[in-house]
Amino acid sequence: xxxxxxxxxVSAHLSKELREKLGIRSLPVRKGDTVKVMRxxxxxxxxxxxxxxxRKARVYLENITRKKVNGSEVPIPFNASNLMIIALDRSxxxxxxxxxxxxxxxxxxxxxx
Length: 113
Description:
This protein is an alpha+beta fold. It has a single domain (about 5-110), classed as SH3 type barrels, CATH 2.30.30. Helices cover about 25% and strands about 35% of the residues. Strands 2-1-7-3-4-5-6 form a 7-stranded mixed β-sheet. About 15% of the residues are buried.
């Protein structure tokens, strides 16, 4: 799958507050978003996204690391489906604009029905 399409593979559900506010269920995770781990050993922890690897479809979080045998620490890769977005990174105007457009389209569909 080409990299520009892999963004869909790193989508995570939105929290209930964001879902009600934006009117959409999920968004691709981006660097700077605040997420909550929903599955696995680190369940319940919240952290900021430090990196998103589209090739491996993995998300890396701040201060959630694993110690290697030689003593160095490496970030733990998470699957985006095991995360929930709690707060969006608001620095990208284009992303916010796209989210608003999705919200408007959902409202239009509801009016048509």
